[in-house]
Write a structure and sequence with these properties.
This protein is an alpha/beta fold. It has nine helices and eight strands.
């Protein structure tokens, strides 16, 4: 399986964000993950399209995976698309018309995805999975970084993986929340192929040594290699 690591900039040092992103990508990360919170759908306020645009202007060419924890969704989609987003994922309960929002993201030139909180049913996938490039499962409740992994999400991952495989789709299955070297292999065995890691990655270099990114991403890759073998 093609595993991808997506560090979340929510845990990065925003005073030197461009450098932080450069360092994690140089260390072997694949995707830059944006946690966009609006202090409405979730109880926190983070970043907007200007940050995405700034990283593109800085020279970041890796895919940017924008997770919208906002309500309503449709208003902000074109702004992130224009700013350089690659994937745009949203929560079905944050959209009045899920199918329309998926189409809006696709028409804007981005790859659409749906996000499911730990207790959110997967029913909507029955009607939308064929239109998605990403399914993101939250393994913590959204709104804050640094939370502990919720184990029952692994069963949700197995269900989504079965749905993807049974339909012969290339849809990526991503997980976000509490993922690190201690559990990434278990998560991968549940069928996940894309791993968001915020504090596990950026927290590893809080002493200012960017070379520690090589160590933590190397540790994640080593655990994933055990699943492949």
């Amino acid at each position: 399986m093609d595993y991808r690591i997506a560090p979340s900039i929510l845990s990065a040092d925003f005073a030197r964000l461009g450098e932080e992103v450069d360092n994690v990508l140089a260390a072997g990360a694949d995707i830059v993950h944006f946690d966009v919170m609006d202090n409405h759908y979730v109880p926190n306020l983070t970043i907007g399209p200007l940050v995405c645009e700034a990283l593109r202007k800085h020279g970041v060419s890796a895919p940017i995976d924008v997770h919208l924890m906002v309500k309503p969704v449709d208003r902000i989609v074109p702004d992130f698309a224009k700013a350089g987003a690659s994937y745009i994922t949203f929560h079905p309960e944050a959209s009045e018309h899920i199918d329309r929002t998926i189409g809006l993201i696709r028409d804007a030139g981005c790859q659409p995805g749906l996000v499911f909180n730990p207790a959110t049913p997967l029913d909507v996938l029955e009607w939308t999975l064929d239109k998605l490039d990403m399914v993101l499962l939250m393994s913590v409740n959204p709104g804050f970084g640094g939370q502990k992994f919720i184990p029952h999400v692994l069963e949700k991952a197995r269900r989504v993986r079965r749905m993807i495989d049974e339909r012969g789709l290339a849809t990526r299955l991503e997980i976000d929340g509490g993922v690190g070297p201690a559990n990434i292999a278990e998560v991968a065995r549940a069928g996940v192929d894309t791993f968001v890691a915020g504090s596990a990655v950026f927290g590893a270099a809080r002493d200012g040594d960017p070379h520690r990114y090589d160590s933590i991403i190397g540790a994640l890759r080593a655990e994933l290699a055990k699943v492949k073998s």
